[in-house]
Amino acid sequence: MLRNTQLDTLAVGSTSVGYYRIADLPGIDHLPYSLKVLVENLVRNEDGANITDEHVQALLNWDPAAEPSHEIQFTPSRVVMQDFTGVPCIVDLATMRDAVQQLGGNPEVINPQVQADMIIDHSVQIDKYGTADAVQANMDIEYERNSERYQFLRWGQGAFKNFRVVPPGTGIIHQVNIEYLARVVMTKQQSNGTTLAYLDSCVGTDSHTTTVNGLGVLGWGVGGIEAEAAMLGQPISMLVPRVVGFKLKGSIPEGVTATDVVLTITDMLRKQGVVGKFVEFYGEGIAQVPLANRATIGNMSPEFGSTCGIFPIDEVTLEYLRLTGRSEEQVALVKAYAQANKLWHDVQDPDYVEPQYSEYLELDLSTVVPSIAGPKRPQDRIRVTEAKQKFEQTLPAYVTEQTTRTPVPVSTAFRGDFELTNGDVAIASITSCTNTSNPSVMIAAGLLARNAVAKGLQPKPWVKTSLAPGSQVVADYLQQAGLQDDLDALGYQLVGFGCATCIGNSGPLLPEISEAIHTHDMTVTAVLSGNRNFEGRISPDIKMNYLASPPLVIAYALAGTMAFDFETEPLGQDAEGNDVFLRDIWPTNAEIEQVVTQNVNRDMFLNDYESVFEGDKRWQGLDVPEGELFDWNDDSTYVRRQTFFDGMTAEPVPVQDVHDARVLAFLGDSVTTDHISPAGAFMASSPAGQYLIKHGVAQKDFNSYGSRRGNHEVMVRGTFGNIRLRNLLLGSVGEEITPGGFTYDFLAMKPTTIYEASRNYLANKVPLVVLGGKEYGTGSSRDWAAKGTAMLGVKVVIVESFERIHRSNLIGMGVLPLQFPEGESATSLGLDGTETYSITGIDKLNEGVTPDTVHVDATHSDGSHTEFDAVVRIDTPGEADYFRNGGILQYVLRNLMKQ
């Protein structure tokens, strides 16, 4: 095996470490950086069974022009989780321990096999804002709401090996990852006493794990289901991807930010079509791209649609490692390792070989212009100069006959009296891992605030302003530069350290504003420095959401409306009555760079991360249960023992065909995991709200869906419950298409909620199908989009095309993903969801064969039939194993029991 022949010794200063040498493997020179990382991963983890020389050879013989066909097994070095998606992972692991015991095994076989870190960053909500004590008040409320969850995580930290928790109030998962957790090159002690150096790689239960790609660390977001398997030592099955080479050249012009660059790249790559592909940035120009900008670009990979958006290791990488407090020994190791294994990027090196790519793109950074994106997708880029015009063209689609067209008077105690108009900015939030990890855009926001205050400008009173940085370092350098005072003066006091607005934790609007919006069916907007702006995500009160750089967020707060032209309209007047335009307060690139250089330093990172796992008195004072098995509380509305393993047998039950299934939901194009997976706030009238009320929870204590992901009873009731979801099935039976989680129950012959209909179908043993269009499942890597689908009784999802992560997650939950024949759709085949469906040929999987297609027979109400062969999207043998076992966790559990 290559694993035996490639083990070598690497000198690092006065010490030496072992490493697996790939530099001399034939074919390595022309491979993209990202594929070299995979080569090292395969060689190091080769076992002669799951990973063989043939897998390595397939990668070394990679044909850039070929479509993906070779399966390999990727074994990430570590797993990172945020708490929304991470809590159910630990719930599942704890439940698996119970299941192992019930099957007569040792519960402690269920233990993370690689380092697993959870950063609690998704639970803080912006209940309080615009006051000096907002951050402490919001953290107090956070602990009050989430104490059950936090106690459970504290238990997990003690019960499981290789599991660490970064407590609340520290920062956002991806920023903590690049600033502290990521090593770029890792080491571990071998049983023979030697030290092995190997490449850092990770998967994360958040799609924006790709932020770490900016450091040269290969990693991407996976569903919680895949992450659990990775924690338990299972490699991730994948096809060798096509790799898109993206050359950057030139420099960012005056007035343009890293956010503008990333929105431009997102626009370009979405048009190129990079779903399921690797994107790799290369060429001489990337040496001029700061690490923070690289991280910002990598962060947006899910918005491109790509698996990753990676930069190679170079001197810029080393500079960032030093800045963020990594030791000189670690920096030396990274450089020595990268150079020895042909992973070092330096186009001036006479031995440099330019990689070959499947596709090529190029961007001259000097051509980038200030941009925003919206009103509902991150790839819908708009030039700022055209923003007002585009908004006014789009607004009519969001108003109805009930919408009041004239200004509505609003009177508040907190912000005084004003008039609210359609298009007004109700939320302007500096938030999210995309931008708060980037000092240049955060300093730009602070400088713009300073200039605005000097000119006497203030945000409009109806704007909810908030600042939620991704790490405490941001607060440090804003404070040291004296910019936090200026941000405070504009209402941008700190509200917390966490994901906040971008995940939907924007908190309530002033009740008077919310009432005006709903009474008059108004269309107000949100502007945030985030990466996600899907419908219904930011706030249930807000229909249109726009992404923008942090300084532009403040600019829109000052303008107060999206119907604003920054070129021709003044933001206000100064003390002398002179008009003040955005250009008058926008800082220069040189000013921004000077403040960054003078105020962002290594000591800040060392100090803030010195006790990163300890937490404050609130964290340390939690009452923590003990023991290898968790003592479940049946009355808990936050953490419940899962039901996935109930009745599980030691051997899998044969896969069966589907007969006489009914359609639960008939959906259109671009249905995202935000439409499917429960997220954000929910109403008392919803099935989840009704459940909590029956369990004695007051509406004010509902918290968010994300905080209750550890309770499957809440989550299954919210699946497909997004307020913007349109189930076309209602229209097919002549009912009004009511947005939200509604469907038609063909057994009861009446419209009802998706949850209630599913219970009726399950009770009568009727399997369910979901029909959809193109790009089904785009969005965050949400395990509950798949878990909830399975728990509703859905056996098959048939769509025109899938997003990578959600397709994989469906298989991980035992749901079969099928695609309509090429060029066909539900509509072109004459389907409307009223049919009954029988799907045959699935049972071939019992013979160890994954069929290319299965036969679908849809019987219409008049007895006629529509028949077609649907493409089976079980793409790898590993996925077939998972499906045969009823899901990935069942597969892992059975295998661990056999060891």
TrEMBL record:
It catalyses: citrate = D-threo-isocitrate. Residues 690-822 form the Aconitase A/isopropylmalate dehydratase small subunit swivel domain. InterPro entries: AcnA_IRP_Swivel, Acnase/IPM_dHydase_lsu_aba_1/3, Acoase/IPM_deHydtase_lsu_aba, Aconitase/3IPM_dehydase_swvl, Aconitase/IRP2, Aconitase_4Fe-4S_BS, Aconitase_4Fe-4S_dom, AconitaseA/IPMdHydase_ssu_swvl. The lineage of its organism: Bacteria, Bacillati, Actinomycetota, Actinomycetes, Bifidobacteriales. One of its GO terms (biological process) is tricarboxylic acid cycle. GO terms for molecular function: 4 iron, 4 sulfur cluster binding; aconitate hydratase activity; metal ion binding. It comes from Bifidobacterium dolichotidis. Pfam families: Aconitase (PF00330), Aconitase_C (PF00694). Its EC number is 4.2.1.3. Its cofactor is [4Fe-4S] cluster. Residues 66-560 form the Aconitase/3-isopropylmalate dehydratase large subunit alpha/beta/alpha domain. CDD domains: AcnA_IRP, AcnA_IRP_Swivel. Keywords: 4Fe-4S, Iron, Iron-sulfur, Lyase, Metal-binding, Tricarboxylic acid cycle. NCBIfam families: aconitase_1 (TIGR01341), PRK09277.1 (NF006757), PRK12881.1 (NF009520). Pathway: Carbohydrate metabolism; tricarboxylic acid cycle; isocitrate from oxaloacetate: step 2/2. The keyword Lyase applies. This is Aconitate hydratase. Catalyzes the isomerization of citrate to isocitrate via cis-aconitate.
